Amino acid sequence: MNQDTICALATPQGIGAIAVIRVSGPDTIQIVNKIFRGKNLEKQASHTIHFGTIRDKIGQPDEVVIDEVLVSLFRAPTSYTKEDSVEISCHASDYIIRKIIKILLREGARLAHPGEFTQRAFLNGQLDLAQAEAVADLIASDSEASHQTAINQVRGGFSKQIAQLREALIHFASMIELELDFGEEDVEFADRDDLRQLIDRIQKVLVPLIESFEMGNVIKNGVPTVIVGKPNAGKSTLLNRLLNEEKAIVSDIAGTTRDVIEDELFIEGIRFRLIDTAGLRKTADTIEAIGVERTLQQIEKASMILYLFDASEIEMSQMKEQETEFMASGTPYLLIGNKLDKISIEKKAEFEQNFAGILWISALEDLNIQDLKAELTRKVKTREVKSGDTVVTNLRHYQHLLQTHEALNNVLEGLDHSITGDFLAQDIRFALHHLGEITGQITTDDLLANIFSKFCIGK
Ligand code: GDP
Asked: What is this model's ipTM?
């Protein structure tokens, strides 16, 4: 248990209607009671709220009222930190906040370190490490999808699953260790077939989690989506149409979009980072050539390519060549036939015979833009683990999952070759170690310090 009582502002700095100051630790209630005029907090039950005033120099002739406040009282162990905690809701003026914190410090609290409330929640067993890390993600989440992922994780997410599998594996590890104690005697306490089955089960859980990492990152950071096509295909017009604002320069002169322009578009809670490019025209103009170079780089980095073409302008062979390149890159792409308003039915049919899945739109006339948006989200979602499934977004978790996976593969291989128990035990221990690192059953102080230092003070 921590002996210090800590305090910090839990709401953002600056002027607002209400600010919340958090206090947590063994002396919380006694300290707050000393500066609070209202009911005697020491006699109040947990999960109660009390109106009163915070005062400086209580009982002295120059006693002053700092603010009228609401004090929410939580008694150990039923608080976020599992310690006695109080939240003081005061008026959000910098002066009041500073003054209240100063008085709290004078009465024996100390200022909390970044993430210290959540760290205490972890150390006191309220959250496991993966959940604590998800608290940081939850606070930072800025789209529906990233919020959903973080909240799933805070509420248990894959930690619970990992912890259960780890338990089962520990059982086998101890059986094998027991065999080792018997030394020369040829005994097998750990049934090898059962072990193999358990590992298969664990791998079935690990693999989707590992694969979800890419998707998780997409949710967290957005889907980098690059719009490519020949000059004048209508890329800037489409970008403007999607974003409903005049961001890119639209012009009739080929090759005017020289810079890479990036913007964000939210469709059904998914964030698309749209990147307009200088087009793919081979060029002698050096400024434009830099743009083309950058376009190629953007394609490499993108998670999705929107290829925009004007069927009345482009050669079929040129487009085939382009499609082959996209296929080779492995990045999902969408062929979008623009200027539907002026393309003849014959032209359309001709392209449809040669290319599958063309989506016809008119960026200028606003035709089929909703279909395009629906197709964008569909493309993301079909690569996505089904909704409600767990998604790994944290690089640290991902790395430990990978290492567990590898160690378990080694165990399977060992079983195939009937290797001795001590080698099996070694790989199993390795797997247990990495699973434990995820949920925090095994941690080092450095790791903890690193994780919680990323929080802000008051969290
Ligand atoms: P970019 O070079 O690919 O960025 O192309 P722009 O967006 O600058 O468009 C080139 C020209 O095509 C402009 O004159 C646009 O108004 C025109 N344009 C774009 N979309 C359409 C469309 O759907 N129909 C028609 N008729 N013209 C379009």
From this structure: 0.98
